[in-house]
Sequence to fold (318 residues):
Amino acid sequence: MQTELLKKRNIEFDVARGIAIFLMIIQHTWQLIFSGFFHSSTLDSAVLFVAIIFGAPVFLFLMGANIVSSHNSDPRSLFFRGLKLIIFGYALSFFRFYLPLILLQYFGIIENPERIIYHLRPLDYLLEIDIFQVAGLSLVGISLLRWQKIRPVYYLVIALIVALISPMLFQLNFVNPVLVYLVEPFFGVAEYVLFPFFPWFVYSLIGFYFGTILIKVNDKKRFYQNALLKMIPIFYLGFILLLVDPNLSSLSFWRHNLGSVLMMGSFVVFWLGIINFNYYRLSDKFLSILTFCSKNVTVIYVIQWIALAWFAIITKII
Fold:
């Protein structure tokens, strides 16, 4: 086993993030290329579900947890890192769908871009809210909390409030089109908003609190054993709250209520514990691949999205 990896304090973070990027590539490939053959089927829902629970919540949770041990975790650094991620997210939106569709329309290869891929207007593709934007907004949010020196335990209180009010915010409607585009990253009413700030900010908040506890732990095995026992009742509580929610029909894989948040948040902790107990069973080569993917997750995410998007567009028009 690789000595430097074994000495790494949070190797379960790298393994979880490495697996997440693999699953997200599979999900994006399915979504863009194969989903049309199995639209609204059980298999289609299963692929999306697996990618969601092992993907975005894990990324955002670990982003929050890693802030605690980061050398650049002062409020100012976090704030500007967040802004850079937001800008980066819109840059990805530009190159992913907007640019190829506009070019194809400009050269007369297609007449109506709205008939390609998701049937959205080019402007909607440009303003699409993906995980980079919500990650950036989450960093900005945490930077403000750190600036105000909010105690970590209150991050859980804020997460609870965000989870409770999010379903109400999904119902908001704004008439002014400019205002709509300004508030969509937060409330996510439109179809092109995949990761609205409410409720996805919750996972970074929970992750930050988790990181403040984990950094003080000496016996990680015992810590995760206790954590797993605590997560089981929280998961089932979330499941019950999800089922009894009168607005259940308005929820989705992207828009969560308190029950969804409790289920996904507890699942992430449970998943990290399972990895911590078993990562030594992985081969050195596979462990190296997962660690490489974790360290280069941003580059891999961008490359796979642009490559898959352009390939899907080309296959639609030939």
The chain has one domain: 3-317. The longest helix spans residues 75-106. The radius of gyration is 20 Å. The mean pLDDT is 88.
